Amino acid sequence: MCVNRTGGSYLVGSDGHPSPWFAVGMSNGADGVGTAGGTDGRDGDAAGRLFAGPGEMRALCRALDWAATPLGPVEEWPAALRAVAGLVLAAPTAMVVLWGPELVQFYNDAYREVMGAKHPAGLGQPTRECWPEVWDFNAPLYEGVTRRGESFTFTDQPLVVERHGRREEAFFTLAYSPVPDDGGAMGGVLVTVFETTAQVRARGAREEERERLLAESEAARARVTATLESIGDAFYAVDRDFRFTYVNHRAEELWGRSRESLLGRHYWTEFPQAVGSVAHRHHLEVMAGRRPAHFEAVSPVIGRWVDVSLYPDEAGGGLACYFRDVDDRRHADAERERLLREAEAARDAAERAAAAAAASEARYRMLFDSIDAGFSVVEVIFDAERRPVDYRFVEANPAFAEQTGLADAVGRTARELLPTLEAHWFEVYGRVALTGEAVRFQNGSEPMGRWFDVYAFRAGAPEERRVGILFTDVTAAHVAARERERLLAELSAERERLRSTILNMPAPLALLVGPEHRFDIVNAAYRRVSGGGRDVTGLTPPEAFPELAGQGIYELFDRVYETGEPWSGPESPVRYDRDGDGVQDTWFDLHFQPVRDAEGRVVGIFNFAVDVTDQVRARRQVERLLAESEHARADAEAARTEAEAANRAKSEFLAVMSHELRTPLNAIGGYAELMEMGIRGPTTAQQQEDLRRIQTSQRHLLGLINEVLNYAKLETGTVHFDLADVPVRDAVLGAELLVAPQARSKGIALAVTDCPPGLEARADVEKLRQIVVNLLSNAVKFTDPGGRVEVSCARDEAGVRVRVSDTGIGIPADKLEAVFDPFVQVRSDLARPHEGTGLGLAISRDLARGMGGDLAARSTPGAGSTFTLTLPAA
Ligand code: ADP
After folding, report:
1. If 0-12 CB within 10 Å is exposed, 13-18 middle and 19+ buried, where does residue 446 land?
2. What would the DSSP string read from start to end of 468-512?
3. 825 CB less than 6 Å from ligand 1?
């Protein structure tokens, strides 16, 4: 950010350099003056008309002395500038037009914010003076527009702005277009500025959010994958067609197959031996019934017992499977069963044949020592209320220490070995000792940190209260099962988090899954733009939006799904039923982002759809306005050319006619004079009188024709001015001399009252005299006998003024301007029409202006009139 010398601020590109193509300042929120100033006498009407209406800029334009700017007085502005100025003032968007070779700034209310501290001084100022700090960058751009008629648009330019008292990054879309002058040459540059910060920020936030979501779901996936790889169980997942979508490392090991050789392949073709097996039946049931199954069976693939858990995979429509080799345990179980039977048999034998005890004991001991399941015999200890409170180890086989971690147990009680052992162990063994009913159960022991699969039975006579305990350590299996539950819970929590993040995002976002692109997750913002409050969840795009058929949008989903390439379409036209009241034209920033699974396959599409209809409509309106103003300009141009041609034709006609009339009139005068002088013979007194009347009429007519001719000359621009430093007093006295007889004969006092001898004006002396004569003869003509006519001259800051005042009939206020129009005479119903053409004042004013001066009138009807001629001083 830079600060210019006047203390205002302007924008720079976010790279820190002044923007090469544009420079604006931001006001700190303070509004400029909004009061309309007084109107300048001369510009008043033209400016008042063009700038009529509300708003600060119109008020400033009315108050500004345009004559002091390079654009000159408003009434002299070309029609094109007026048209574009009207357009700029009426436009709701920020606009500035840079007009003429000096690129003078003319801007509207919305653009004030852009001007910042440079407002209001910048109105009517050349842009180079207003923005010297960025002129080097802007100059070539303006050159491109004005010299080559090029248009430029800069979309979403990032700029650092200072406004509302702080620095912030904002975005603007800027359009530069050429505006032709009346003659078709380049008149100026029209710059339109839209702030697009909100849209750009929304887009950025959307992108970030999407990135974050993708990263998050990626991380969740990675975590799940890592877990699946680290657990001891084999794991695989298949889709609804039983094609492998995931195979973990343990499964690879068990099957002896690499995952690469399985992924994407059909389960039953890869493992044909499994078809028809128990596992096959369970797989089909889970897939169809969508309920989990748990079973143990001999795997037809590896020929060993496996423990299998099958779960339907709700998201993908397939199923997931955990399994592990329990062949060893199965065999141990079988062995154990067998041993137990044997033990029973042994016990029976022991009971039956006490005599054979020694032999049996030896055999029993051998058996007892040889099995790898833990085995012990305990004697349960009861308290006085026959509640089991402890038990003493009577026997333990070698595997006992391995399975329990307890050494030298025999002879000691459980409480001695494990003071915090849970009461349930005493209870269950106490029950067995008392009832004689064998039990089988699984249970854990906190102090031992293990889980056991236990078979307990009464050993020996009831009163001995002995219990035989056969058990295996199943801690590993138990932990694995717990872990599996935890993982599944975690997976579904992650899934839920993703869903709620999407649902709560402010940008319209939907997740579509599968090759049919069914809407899976649709957030509230997306639902709002879906139109008519429809809920599209679970539908395919053609079901959700049937009116989109034929617009190529369904095909976009297919394309993104098939190619895996994201697709973005800013301001894509979409015809659909947005508001529930029929199909309409809308525009959307569309984005399709493929969603992939762990193997990188596309499984869904994120669809972002931001409604930018209002933005697009606003821009189109500006374009339409521009085109309309162009038409209006062309029409005005044509009308003007036509009017000028007509006027020229009229003036030429007058010039020719007047000239044609003068020749015969001169002949009439000449012959009348010859007769009057008696050259054609003697004449009577009556004839002499007639001849004088003829001559008077001839001179009058000639005077009228000369005036018409003069005016026509002025109009056709054929009058030539010989400018010199003219002594004003001489010219005034010369004129007075010519009118004096007329005044005298009418009884009117005519005087030059005050006119310093040294006063000189820059003028054509003949034309000056002509104007004064004309004013004096009017004064005499419209003043009754006994009245007074005065001429004075003076010098002031505006130049030299010559005043002619009379005490005549005066001019009504509403006619004061009209008397300067050609052929206008003020009619008084009381008096008969005065002589004259109504051209004198029109000619006089044209002559005055032709010399760089002006002619104006003031009057009080009934009291007199004053005509003031202004001329540049010498
Ligand atoms: P003309 O005198 O030939 O009619 P001008 O253009 O000189 O044409 O004047 C236009 C009209 O302005 C006159 O017809 C008259 O009505 C009015 N006018 C001009 N000068 C005076 C004056 N000094 N006092 C009153 N009315 C005047």
Report:
1. exposed
2. EEEEEE-HHHHHHHHHHHHHHHHHHHHHHHHHHHHHH-SS-EEEE
3. yes
- Which tens digit of pLDDT belongs to each residue from 84-101? 888 888 877 788 999 988
How many CA atoms are closer than 13 Å to the CA of 39, on its beta-carbon side?
17
Gap between the Cα atoms of 258 and 239, Å rounded: 19
839 lines ligand 1 (CB under 6 A): yes
Compute the distance between CA of residue 471 and CA of residue 47 in angstroms, rounded to an integer. Answer: 108
Residue 631: CB atoms within 10 A of its CB come to 11
Report whether residue 771 contacts ligand 1, using a CB cutoff of 6 Å: no
* Distance from C-alpha of 386 to C-alpha of 433, rounded to nearest angstrom: 12
- Which atom in ligand 1 lies closest to the alpha carbon of residue 808? 24
Both tokens of residue 847?
A: 């002559």
Alpha carbon dihedral 433, 474, 451, 320, in 10-degree steps, equals -130
How remote is the CA of residue 810 from the centroid of ligand 1, in Å?
Answer: 9
Torsion of CA 117, 120, 121, 125, to 10 degrees: 110
Answer yes or no: is the C-beta of 779 below 6 A from any ligand 1 atom.
yes
pLDDT confidence tier of residue 187, bands split at 50, 70 and 90: confident
**Ligand 1 site-directed mutation target among 777, 819, 846, 859, most atoms within 8 Å of CB:** 819
Please list, in sequence order, all residues whose beta carbon lies within 8 angstroms of the beta carbon of residue 553, skipping any fewer than 6 positions away.
541, 545, 574
Determine if ligand 1 sits within 6 Å of the CB of residue 811.
Answer: yes
Give nearest CA residue, ligand 1 atom 7: 840
Is 778 a pocket residue for ligand 1 (Cβ < 6 Å)?
Answer: yes
> 857: Cβ below 6 Å to ligand 1?
no
CA of 740 relative to ligand 1 center, distance in Å: 18
pLDDT value at 35 more than 60: no
Q: Cβ-count burial of 616 within 10 angstroms (0-12 exposed, 13-18 middle, 19+ buried)?
A: middle
Does ligand 1 have an atom closer than 6 angstroms to the CB of 840?
A: yes
Least confident range of 352-366, 438-452, 759-773: 352-366
Q: What is the DSSP string of 507-571?
A: S-EEEEETTTTEEEEE-HHHHHHHSTT---TT--HHHH-GGGTTTTHHHHHHHHHHH---EEEEE
Question: How many Cβ atoms sit within 10 Å of the Cβ of residue 858?
Answer: 15
Cβ–Cβ under 8 Å, residues 622 and 596: no
d(CA 330, CA 325): 9
Per-residue CA distances from 431 to 462, 466, 855 (Å)? 11, 11, 133
Q: How many C-beta atoms lie closer than 10 Å to residue 625's C-beta?
A: 15
Separation in Å, CA 638 to CA 100, 390, 458, 626, 634: 22, 119, 122, 19, 6
Instruction: Render pLDDT for 824-851 as a digit per residue (tens, 0 to 9).
Output: 888 755 544 566 778 889 999 999 999 9
Q: Ligand 1: which atom is nearest the Cα of residue 841?
A: 6
- CA triple 775-777-782, angle to 5 deg: 95
Q: What is the pLDDT of residue 23?
A: 34
